[in-house]
Amino acid sequence: MSLEPLKERIGAINDLLTTVNLLVWDSRTMMPAGGAAARGRQVATLTRLARDLACDDDMMRRLEVAERDVAVAGVPEIDRAAVRQVRGAVDAHRRIPAELVERRARLQASATQSWIDARARDDFASFEPLLAETIVLARALADALGWSEHPYDALVNLYEPGETLASLRALFGELRPELKRILAGAQARPPARDVLSGDFPPAEQLALSARLAAAIGYDFKHGRIDPTVHPFEISFTRDDVRITTRFKPNHVAQSIFGTLHEAGHGLYEQNVDPSFTRSIFATDLLGLYAVGGTSYGAHESQSRLFENHVGRSAAFWRRRYPDLVTAFPVFASVPLEAFLAAITRVSPGLIRTDADEVTYDFHVMVRVEIEAALLDGSLAARDLPEVWREQVRANLGLEVPNDREGCLQDAHWAAGLVGSFCTYTIGNIMAAQLFETACASSPQIRTALEEGDVGPLSSWLRESVWRHGRRFHRNDLLAQATGSTLKLAPYLRHLSQRYLDPAR
Asked: Torsion angle of alpha carbons 437, 439, 444, 447, nearest 10°?
C-alpha cells in the first residue's frame, strides 16, 4: 500500500509547523519587542511553505494514490480516516489564496506585539488598526472557505467542527438562564474571606507552579514552564510540550489556576499516541497548527477539567496545601476551609481568565457575539471598547473602567484566532461530561482523588481521550468515551452541586 509518500509529506508539513510553534513560543516568552517585524516575516515564510507543501501538484498525486489504496477491502479504518482528513484539509486549502495565508501569518507577530504594548499602556487606539486588519483577513478567510448562514460559521468550524453561530446561540440559550439561577443561589451564600491577596514574589510563585503541574502529572523531562503576558500551552512534538503562566505579585490565585489550566493542555499533548508523531493525527492541516487535540473544545475540556474539577476540589488541596504553605508561610495561619471557600468564591469580575466557574461562560458569550458582529461588519473595530462595556454591563452587571481590563485583555484576536472563543464553553461542558463518566465508571478514580492521587483519572483520560489525538471527530470521541455526544446536564449538575449544595 502506497501511503508512505503521503505520510512523508504530512511529516514534513508538521516539521515546518512545529518550527513555527517554536518561533511563536519564543515571541511570547523571550523575544525582545523590537524583533516582532522580523519574526512576522519568518513565521509567514514557514507558514507559506507549509501551505504550499499541502497544496502543490506533488501532494495531489500522493493523496490520489493513497485514496486509491485505502479504497480496497481490508484496509484499516485508521488509514482511511487519515486519508479522509488530509483530503478535507487539502480541498479547503486550495480554496484559500496563498497570499492570504502569508498575510495572516505575517500579521500575527506584529499584531501580538502591538497588543502587548497597547495592553500595558491601556491604549486601544494603537492596536485598533491591526485589529481592523485582522478582522478583514478573517472575513477573507471565511469567504474563501465558504459559508451560507453567517461568515462566522466558517471560522468556528476551524476550531470546533460542526458548530455554527446558530448552534452556539441555541446552546447559550439553554445555558444562560441556568447560570443565572446558579449565580443567584451562590451569591446568597455568606461571602468568602479574601485570603488570596498578599505579598507573593513571582519567583516563589513559579516554583509553586512547577510543583503543582508535576503533581497532576505534567512531565518536566519533556516540558518546561515560563512566565508570559497571556498563558498558553504549545507543543513541538509530544516529547517537547511547553506551558506558561503569569503572576500577580499581590494575588496568588492567577498563577495557581493558570498553571493547572495549561498543564491540563500539556497532559493532552504529552500523551498522544507516539505513533501519531508527525502524522495527520498530530497536525491541524487546515488551520496550519501542530496540535494533537481533536478540537479546541476537546483541548479546553482537559485544561478546564484539571483547573476546576481537580484543582478547585477539597480533595486536591488536602494533599497539596502543605506545598502552598511551604511556598508562602502566611498560609500556615489560614485554615484550609477558608482557602477552599476563597478559591470557589462566586463574584462577577472583569477578567475572563480570573473568572469563577459560574460566571466564566458569560465572558465567552460576550466574546462570541462580538466576534460575529466584527466579522459580519455590524460592528467596526473602532467601536469595540464601547460595545464591550455595554455587553459586560448587560451580562455581568459590571462597569469596565479601562480597556486593559476590557477589550484588550485577551491575546486571541491579535493571534488571528477569530472564532475560537466558543471552545472554552464547549470545553467546560465536555470536561463535566468526561469527569462524571470517568468517576462513574470506576469507584477507584473517586477514591484516589480523595487521597490526592490523580493517577487513575489520568489513566482513564489517557485511554479515552489523550491517546487518540486528532483521530476522531469531537462528537465521535465523546460518544466513545461517555456514550453520548455533547450534553449540558453534567455541567449543570457539577455547578449546582459545588455552588448550591448547602452541605458543601
From this structure: 180
DSSP character for 223? -
Q: From CA 303, how far away is CA 310, in angstroms rounded? A: 10
**245: enclosing H helix or E strand:** strand 240-245
| Residue-level pLDDT at 501 | 80
Confidence of residue 480 (pLDDT cuts 50, 70, 90): very high
CA dist., res. 31 & res. 35, Å (int):
6
- Residue 433 pLDDT more than 80? yes
DSSP 238: T
Q: Are 471 and 294 in contact (CB under 8 A)?
A: yes
Q: What is the mean pLDDT of the chain?
A: 94
Catalytic: which of 128, 160, 163, 262? Answer: 262
- pLDDT grade for 503, boundaries at 50, 70 and 90: low
What is the percent of the chain where pLDDT is above 90?
90
Give the type of residue at 486. L
AA identity, residue 420: S
Q: How far from chain centre, in Å, is Cα 210? A: 20
Residues 23 and 344: their CA atoms lie apart, in Å, by: 37
Please count the residues of the chain. Answer: 504
Which pTM does this prediction carry? 0.94
**Cβ contact 372:176 at 8 Å:** no
Q: Is 160 a catalytic residue?
A: no
The domains of the chain are located at 4-125
Per-residue model confidence (pLDDT) at position 53: 95
